[in-house]
Structure formats: structure tokens, C-alpha cells
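TL;DR need C-alpha cells for one chain.
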Amino acid sequence: MKKIPLFLPFLFLTALSSAAKPPAVLPPLTGFTAADMPGDAGGAALLRWDSPGSAAAGAVIEVYVSDPAKPAWVKLADFKAEAKSESDFNRPFWAWSPAAGRNAVRLDTSAVFGRLDKPQELDFKLRMVRGAASAETEPVRTVIKGNWFNAARLNNFLLMLAITIGFFWTVSHARRKGLFIRRIAGLDAIDEAIGRATEMGRPIFYSTGIGQMSLVPTIASTSILGEVARKVAQYDTQLKVPHFDPIVMTVCKEVVKQSYLEMERPDSYRDDINFFVSNDQFSYAASVDGMIHREKPAACFFIGHFMAESLLLAEVGATTGAIQIAGTEQESQLPFFFTSCDYTLIGEELYAAGAYLSKEPMLLSTLKVQDFGKAFVMVSVVAGSILLAAGAWFGWQPLIKVVEQLFKAY
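>> reply
TL;DR here they are.
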């Protein structure tokens, strides 16, 4: 048996390695265009070119920018030649139509030239590099400027128009015929609680919680306080509002005073209706508990932002036999109110209370528009789920992509 020369395997491996190497010459970059990025505030460019294909595997494309007034090229970005396909561009279908075999990239020029307060001409070019080989495009000039409308957000504009039209329609309908709102037992019981306090000659305690004025539950609580104060002024009942936050106390003073003026009972208003207790959580709870225990109110309202003091307040009120109405956004405190209060406002009932009690057409309209919005979201989710399932079942990839873009846009 003859021996194989030792140099033959090396020749074979060398041939294989040379065959696996990409060609030394790179294909030219064709179809290069530069334009202002549509729908932005300025400071970005949209570059598009023909895909170099597999012949440019392993190459890197470098992007250069230059100000015509100062012709010095600055490298803006670099990426793999096979990346940046137009079909992967992150824009919705109604604002972007990708072309097959084309690449595109959005480039932020503000990193080099800063924010452009006015339109500015810039030159762009591409350079493809792989080892010692390179290919370069001719410079292309374009104007970078801000745009007044972003087509990618057209759906949000249409949604805003629909909400606006729906709001004005509901306002008109509320003024002409009124709007139906389902019954909320806790709010209907306010008249009963105030009437009971009037008959018994006992005071009413109203707590806005320990939240600051910037919290939405506190704002909703002041709205309910205004309606309660109107009825208290009408029946000439004693109202006491102990406060945790001095800013909330100042706002509530104006709210209660305005309610008395609207009911034409300014002589019955007293500055000591609203009073500051303490800005320490448990000191506030202990002080209010002592007042409730001593004065035996006929009704207690705990509406606003409450934490661990919720059960401390509500339990003492329950021992006095008072009608208690509570409401908070804190889900962890709702069970304590459920067990110790007669009525508890759940979820958005707290925020709808102002419109429910005042029957103001403008406020009622906002509730209806919110309901329409929730219905629209639910229908959209169900319809989108059905379309995605149908697209996956029948292999309709374009349908899946359209539905995903619609949901991502909203």
C-alpha cells in the first residue's frame, strides 16, 4: 500500500478555506437615496438603498454625513450589510410601504449638528467595507426639517376626533334628555345618612383620608364633600371635617364655603367645620377616634386615600351605631371597609360620585364617554384576538402583521 504524501491534506484544506472565503470584490451599492425623515420634529434623515445581497456577507456599511458649508465627512453609524431591511422598519402600514430588496435606516443627525431650528442641507454617503475591499456611493444631498404632521399617528388623531365628537354629542344629549347612570347604593344612602343625623341632632364626620391634594382619590373626595355640604347646609346639620394635610384642609374650606353660598346659607357656615388634626398617620387616627367616641355622630364618611388607619377609624364609628359610607382606591383597605361600613364605593364609583350626585350634564358626559371608550377597547381586544387566531390558523401573515401594528399604535 502506497503512502499518501503529507502535503496533500494541507493542499486540500487550503483549497477548502479559499473556496469558503467571500470574494474580494464587493458589489456596488445602488439605488441610494436620502430624504428628510417624514413625520418627525427635525433632526433625522431617512436613507434607502438596494440590498447588496449575499455577495456582501460579512461586510459592514458605514454612514457618513457632511455639512455642505463645512465639507468634512463625519461617521454617523455602522451596521452589518445584511441588516436594515425595509420590511423591518418600525412604522405602521398606512405610513410606510416597504419595497422588496430594499434597505432603509433612520439616522439621528442631532448628535453631530445639534437641534436644527431651521431647515438645513446635509450630504450623505454610504461606504461598504470588508477587509481591504470597499465600495462607496456618490454623495446625496437632502434638506432636514421639522414636519407639521406625523402620518404614523394618524390613528391617534382619528381616535381623538371620535372622542371629541362623542363628548359633545353626550353633552348635548344630557342637556336635552338626560343620561342614564346605574344606581349606586352608597351614594343614594347619603340623603338617608344626613336625614338621620338631622333627626337625631347629632353631627356628621367626614374624613378625606391621609392623601395629598395631588392624589386623584383626594380630589374625588373633595367633590363628594361639596355635595354633602350642600345637603348639610339645606338641612342645617352639623358637619365636622378633620384633616391630615393642611393643604387639603385649605381646599376643603373653600369647597364647603362655596356649597353653603350656593344653598344661600352663608350665615350657617363656620370656619371650624374644617380643622387640622395631625399629619402623623396614627396620631390622626387616634384623635379622630376619640372625637367619634365622644360625640357619637349619626353618620361617618371615610372617602379618599386610606392605609392602615382605615379599620381603626371605621371600627370606632361602627361601635357608635353611625351610618358609615366609605370609599378608597386602595384595594388592600377595601375588605376592612366592607366589614365595618354600611356602604362602600368600589373602583370607579369613587370617581363617578361627583357626577352622580350633582347630575351636571358636563360631568355626566365624561362618564358616558369613558363608558364608550371602555366598550371600544373591549370590542377591539375581542376582534383583534379573533383576527390573530384566524391569521395564525390559515397562515395569513399579512393579516397578523396589520393587527399587531394597529394594537401597537394604540
